[in-house]
Amino acid sequence: MRDISYEAIMARKNEIMKKAVGIDYEVFDYGQIAFDYEEMMKKVGYSLEEVRKIQNETKVGNTPLYELKNINKLIKKYSPKGKGARVFLKDEAVNSSGSFKARRAAVSVYHAEKHGYKGVIAATSGNYGAAVAAQALQRGLKCIIVQEVYDSRKIGQPEILEKARKCEAYGAEVVQLTVGPELFYTFLKLLEETGYFNASLYTPFGIAGVETLGSELANQMLEKEGKYPDVVIATNAGGGNLTGTARGLIKQGAKDTKIFGASVDLTGLHMASDNDFNKKSFTTGHTGFGVPFATWPDRADVPRNAARVLRYMDRYVTLTQGEVFYVTEALAQLEGLERGPAGNTSLAAAVAIAKEMDEDKTIVVQETEYTGAGKHPTAQLTFARENGIEVKRGKPEDSVPGESVIIPESFEQLKVNDLSLDKLKKSLIKNAIQKNNIKELDNEDIEFLMEDTNKSREYILDVVNSLDIKIK
Amino acid sequence: MKQVKRGEWVEIEEILLEPEKRAKHLPLDTKKVPLVQWFKGYMITEEANIGDEVEIKTLIGRKVKGKLSDINPKHVHNFGEPIKELIDVGIELRDEIIKLD
């Protein structure tokens, strides 16, 4: 019998992964850090047309796009003269399982079935679990979801408890763990034991699945408004939502549309801390995932992450938890759409940004997610109070993650905080060099870093020189 | 006579890593506690009490062993308490729309 101790399983990581994803990532490698991203997406991903067909078979895609007329009236009220862009919302909650994650799961599960896997496993505490479960059952595959849900007192984050319930409602086996990155050990052990497919969020299949979201919304805006949107805003965590949407927009021809990322600001809370775990009111869409994944995408559970936001992102903004709850309430009370809350981060950003943009411009918020017990502002704020967090009305900028959630007093107060893309890009370059132990860079690596940051040769060389790295 | 019989829906617990075995570079508070995991399923063991080693069959038919930790585990999450601050937001925003119209 094989050794299944922590050390033994972790040592077999690469071998287990290769079998469980069925992709030989090494064939795309060149230089010392470079890999051919587009070739990977082409060779192992699926075309837009194929993805549409796959998703159509399992109740995914073709979601409605609405203009948020009442919210737009308030945006106009609080904008300077001539300002106040109109905001549109793509209602992704109507996908099977209740979120845009169904798009990613649909392609992964299709691929797993086609290649003869008997089941799929995903490590996720988010909507993706239910998405994989709902797709797997439709294609006759078994499903295991591994989630981080409890602190050491066995108190579960309500949002994640709800996601566990939903996975079970779709017939999946759910493995629940306490806080800690060693969850990866259980994940690998299960992959090895079962021989199931690793339905990682970060494979080319998953990202190809989101491309239809970008292409659909481009077409819907063209039909409604006679032009593509000026800005699309995506809630950003691991980066797949933004990457896939941006790729879909480009494939559809909406090349001038700007793509912004938005995350809830959880600065100061440590993602692997047992104490901090239940002090956050958002379990996804936050900076605790957004920033590390942007600056080092290959931290994911596959060797090469297909979600690479710094290639596509034109602006990255953060909002406070209270602002997102406020806008979630506005969406329910003004538009008759009870959704979110985490998925509404991009909506909160849109409201703030629309006030700065000209009135003839349009913004598309490209997702919503289902809401329910646990996954709801009232559930989260009750839980926050039980965990010693102060909840009150006030100025959003006075809130401190882990200490207070401040619900704005007025629509006027909603505003975004810009993260420096320049700083994030420099950090990506530094990570690529340091995590790979590079002393001298090849020219092809420089070209790769230019693509990975969407920056010029001079920019890369500047950063590389400041790190005292030589060029071969 | 034991508490739980074969066929009942239960939860089992397993300590995966004791504190001293946990990964390096963890925050200190996390390092102090064990990594624990839970599975749910139908109990296969004939009968057992909470705390006994048992075997279960999960929703996808896999057999897993562990310490019996709960019987018919309840979904404890709910909608929480009404949040007055949010109720107020709804009324304020709707009033604003009425005034604009």
What does this structure look like?
Chain A is 45% helix and 15% strand. By secondary structure, chain A is of the alpha/beta class. Chain A folds into three domains: 6-44 and 100-201, 3-Layer(aba) Sandwich (Rossmann fold), CATH 3.40.50; 53-98 and 205-419, 3-Layer(aba) Sandwich (Rossmann fold); 432-471, no CATH class. In chain A, the strands form five sheets. Chain A has a seven-stranded mixed sheet, sandwiched between helices. In chain A, strands 7-6-5-8 form a four-stranded parallel sheet, with helices on both faces. In chain A, strand 9, helix 11 (240-252) and strand 10 form a beta-alpha-beta unit. The radius of gyration of chain A is 21 Å and the shape is globular. The mean pLDDT of chain A is 96. Chain B is elongated and about 70 Å long. A four-stranded antiparallel β-barrel of chain B has the order 2-3-5-6. Chain B has a two-stranded antiparallel ribbon with strand order 1-4. In chain B, a hairpin with a 5-residue loop joins strand 5 (53-57) and strand 6 (63-71). Chain B has helices at 28-31, 84-100, and strands at 4-5, 9-17, 35-43, 47-48, 53-57, 63-71. Chain B has one domain (4-100). Chain B has two helices and six strands. The model of chain B has no long low-confidence stretch (mean pLDDT 96). Chains A and B meet through helix 5, strand 6, helix 8, strand 7 and helix 9 of A and strand 3 and helix 2 of B. Strand 7 (173-178) of chain A pairs antiparallel with strand 3 of chain B.
Which key terms come to mind for this protein?
heterodimer; A: 472 residues; alpha/beta; 7-stranded mixed beta sheet; 19 helices; 17 strands; B: 101 residues; alpha+beta; 4-stranded antiparallel beta barrel; two-stranded antiparallel ribbon
